Amino acid sequence: KAVVSTQSTGISFYMWLASESQKGVLMSTGTGDIRLSIHLDDETLTATAKCSDNQQASLSISGVTSQKWTHVSLSWIDTQVSLQVDLSQEQVLLGMCGMVLDGKLFLGGAPDAIGVISTFADVIAFSAPIEDVPTGGMGLTLADIHVCRGPTSPCSVIGSVSCDEGVTNTEYSCTCKDNYTGDDCSEEIVPDPCADTVCKNLETCVAGDCVCQYPNLASNDCSDTMTDELLGFCFEDAGSVEFDTNPGGSLFNNFDMRFSLVVPSDLPVGNYSVLGFVFDGMLMAQLNVEKTQASDGSTEVLLYPSPTGTFMGFSAVLDPGTTATIRVKIDGSGTVLELNDKKYQNIGMAIVVPPKIIFGKVESAAYPGCYHGVTVNGKPVSSVISGVGVKECNDVAMEELRIDMGNFGVDLWDVVGVL
After folding, report:
1. Pair 236, 214: CB distance under 8 Å
2. CB hemisphere CA count around 78 (13 angstroms)
3. According to the 3-state scheme, what is the secondary structure of 341-371?
């Protein structure tokens, strides 16, 4: 009998019965009138749930055999109790009686009942693996079963070919598939798409494509360079540029970024990355644009965040051939996302001010339209950390921007040095 202190609403384990035709308690937990137990009678497991002297229910599953690993799970949600043995499952209702257990979990028997001879492994109680040494019990020994022949292999199921036994029951090594490595073969070897790619001078390889390294532009074999301030720009498919939006960490809970995005009239159907917010090297959130086409040929262009929970499912329709002005504002009142001066959502709490922003390719291909007027807290962003595949906006895009903004906007932006 093994005793483990626990509070449980779900118990699962693997068992290896030592022999056939055993009868006794396999598992028991609970105190007083509220108890759960599993009994073995030859090849039948019977789970009994009791929550008072007058209310109890039982359910059974047959076909249990010895000398093999069998997975057993007993769970209860509100008034429903479920017993699962490998792929077989039974459920029963206890009526208006909830199972709230507080006590100890007994495996292989109970203090007042005959137990069964079995090996237990991978015991989980209340969704947490039990790894502590049992707090009591008797007749306990370590299983004479090699870890490679346990219910769950220490080698990755996906990446390993075999678990190879060592001298003792706990010594082993894993034989990996060709595209996996590591002690347990869990690390996938991802081929480098740039391994066999030879790029020209001033180019760098990104996802197998040769693109110009910023500040060299994707024109004239990368011989053209961008000015100190990145004012109007767009990207090749694999292009991106990274800005330092919070130099020295001076901004705290006070962030106001604006930029304009040209929506091309001929934007191809697909999903595109507009920008990503990066904190401590981790991608916090993204803005994406997707153009879809219905069966009747009609199309729609949507701007939306990812993950969707960032702005509580916000999405907005963009009109092709126009320019969208986007604003992300973070302060003590929350995080606000605006499109063309219309406030769409305030999530009620502020996210961390992102020290870095990546425009262009993040997870999807880079958005092909032109970006203009990137400002943080009213100042043009010019602190470029790195970039690849950056292009200047063409004359058509610039003209679309000017027409959409009107003369007043162009004059104003000219004064502050954005255009």
Report:
1. no
2. 3
3. CEEEEECCCCCCCCCEEEEECCCCEECCCCE
Q: How many residues does the chain have?
A: 419
3-state secondary structure of 164: strand
The residue written with tokens 């470029």 in the block is 384
pLDDT digits (tens, 9 = 90+) for 406-418: 333 333 333 333 3
159: its two tokens: 């990446």
Per DSSP, the residues of 9-47 read SEEEEEEEESSSS-EEEEEEEEETTEEEEEEEETTEEEE
Interstrand relation of 103-107 and 88-93 (parallel, antiparallel or unpaired): unpaired
Q: How many whole angstroms separate alpha carbon 29 and alpha carbon 225?
A: 73
Q: Please state whether the peptide bond connecting residue 368 to the residue before it is cis, i.e. omega within 30 degrees of 0.
A: no
**How far is C-alpha 407 from the chain's CA centre?**
46
Write down the number of H helices and E strands in the chain.
1, 33
Closest to 193 (Cα-Cα) out of 211, 207, 183: 207
CA atoms of 116 and 22, how far apart (whole Å) = 6
Do the Cβ atoms of 323 and 316 come closer than 8 Å?
A: no
**One-letter identity of residue 36:** L
Residue 240 contacts residue 364 (beta carbons within 8 Å): no
What is the sign, positive or negative, of the torsion defined by CA atoms of 260, 263, 267, 271? positive
Q: Which of 81, 361, 323 is nearest to 238 (CA)?
A: 361
Taking the CA atoms of the chain, what radius of gyration do you get in angstroms?
A: 32
What does the pLDDT look like over 14-37, one tens digit per residue? 999 988 889 999 988 877 777 888
pLDDT per residue over 293-305, tens digit each?
999 988 998 888 7
348 bridge partner residues: none
What whole-number distance in Å separates Cα of residue 204 and Cα of residue 45?
A: 64
Would you call 220 helix, strand, or coil by DSSP? helix
Does the pTM surpass 0.85? The reply is: no
Nearest CA among 357, 361, 371 for reference residue 251: 357
Cα separation, 28 vs 50, whole angstroms: 11
